[in-house]
Amino acid sequence: MYKVPFGPTYEEMLHPDKIDPEIRKQALKAKTNELDPINLFNIIWKNEKNQVNKIVLPKALTGVDANIVVLLGKYFPSGSHKVGPAYSTLIEGCVDGDIIPGKHTILGPSTGNFGIGVSYICNLMKYDSIVIMPDNMSKERYDRIRKYGAKLDLTPGTESDVILTLERTYELKKNPNFRTLAQFELFPNYRFHRHVTGNSAVEAVEGIGNGRIACFTSAPGSAGTLAAGDQIKAVFPEAKIVALEPYECSTLTNGGRGQHRIEGIGDKMCTLIHNVLTTDFIALIKDDDSVKGLKIIHDAPHILKEFGVDQETANAMTDLFGVSGICNILGAIKMAKYLRLGENDNVVTIATDGFDRYDSVIQDLDHRVLETEDFVLRRWFKDIFQKADTEDIEDVRRAAGKERLFKQKEKDWLRFGYSLEYLNKMRSMQFWDDEYAKIKEYEQKIKEKRGETV
Predict the structure, then answer these.
(1) pTM for the complete prediction?
(2) Which pLDDT score, from 0 to 100, does residue 256 have?
């Protein structure tokens, strides 16, 4: 029988100062040995000083008066914040007795970062795992999943064909020895982001502008990160929550189903755990703008300096973002303009990962566009960042907008066995608050499994 190393509670992931000091010390030391199981206690948004890993973007880059604050996911174990939902889903299954070490193999449907998170967490907690994902994602994603010891089960297509991975997952999980960390439909994902990411975002704006959050932007893959908006609204009721979609795959906006290049988002569905009650706007971002924007920041800090960004800051940003992070940043710029936010206002967004898994994406861009000399990058910078427009923004605060999103959710999830009665419960905020309140139950269960007196 395997011995499962139990990790942190939700409160410890939010407040690392609540972790046993000796464990915290060992975990920080183990960051250089990422396969040490004590890295479970590094699943936090914060650094060794218990401050949120973030950057306030230079206004010479964003071109807006508002402060755009980006939480940085690259500092999580495995290099992405998706490791948090992967751990939360696995640990809840463990303490509930539904996932048994030595018996169950873990399935992780994903387009990349969640799959990496699943393979990483299963490595640390000694479970075999299979990641189900499309066969046209970046090479770096596959390499890292294999590095952590998971098997790959590839389905046809790209990012926007994730529905095929769901169908494959439902087929595989008929095997009684398989258990699924179903990021699109299981609520540990929601709980992690509402509690840990949402409250970290609130902390991140302390001392910046008016200390409040006017707007939160995030592209939904699983829509887990959007759950942070529920907690942000609980603290700052005036905050606007904005879901970002690829212009080329505008499912939430108008049912669009196209292909796109922004890995990790735009999955042709309204996920089960997406609380559409708190989504105020949907904004569309062009996929090539996100890829070109990443190239500028990673490859050409000298171009940023030409436009007024401090050289040290430009150099520091080169590895902080991936393609979806640039998408989120462009959405933040767009909404700052649309909402006419001023210098005291704060827009918060997320960089899910860093550059380390996008070399092949930039190589593909270079091959496609052929010319990437400085004069081309200057033009891209102006067009993508400085001339960001306020087009393609859908206001879904009214009843008609909500109803359309609920109908989309019904279309996507009735086919997977969820009842209309259950889906209708999601039309009440009480449903979401009740799911969030289960954190207290899991705090106790995790501590009991660790042998602590509660």
Answers:
(1) 0.95
(2) 73
